[in-house]
Amino acid sequence: MSWVATEQDALVRTLRSANPDAPTLCEGWDVRRLLSHLVQREQGPVDGLKDAVARRPPGQEPGLSRLTDRARSPYGYARLVDRFVAGAPRWSPMSWAAEKINFVEYVIHHEDVRRGGTSPAAPRDLPAAQQEAVWKQLGLFALSLRRSPVGVRLATPAGETRVAKAGDGVTLTGEPVELALWISGRREAAQVTVTGAPDAVEAFRSWAEG
């Protein structure tokens, strides 16, 4: 089984057992709305584009609101989970390129559900091969770090490293999933350490928080 299929199966189990009204790490989104996003992303790209153009605050997106409102009942929520299981149409890149497009997306949103709320779950003990699969895809996610005022290096406890921005600066150390969470903005929930010269760390943190 591919890693994207493995992660989708795990995410589906979590979604079925979660409280749909529980908060997630995504500002303004509860579990039900995050699930609506997953379905819209793969099966309703036009509505997703309309939501992006509308530029409404998180939790007020028109297209997502319609999906979310239809999933208010237990039956409606279960049906929405079933739609996510069905996945994107075969012609869609979300289907035939799912390993590259959806795998890390699923990992991040899975942790959004697991670690949201007042009693966040601990990081999962994932197989080393799955962490390695996330590591291999971090390059694209790390492009945003090129705007950092100092150099940035990514590192794992196993000793793997990758330069996100050349130059002296800071090192972000954590398991690949934790690094993916940090880079995508889930910084308080991510178990990542930032090290380097004090002035570099201060400059980097100021940039990251801004």
From TrEMBL:
Residue ranges occupied by any Mycothiol-dependent maleylpyruvate isomerase metal-binding domain in the UniProt entry: 7-90
Pfam families registered for this protein in UniProt: MDMPI_N (PF11716)
Coiled-coil positions: none
Region annotation Disordered: where it falls in the sequence: 49-68
NCBIfam families given in the database record: maleylpyruvate isomerase family mycothiol-dependent enzyme, TIGR03085 family metal-binding protein
Name the UniProt record assigns to this protein: TIGR03085 family metal-binding protein
Source species of the chain: Microlunatus spumicola
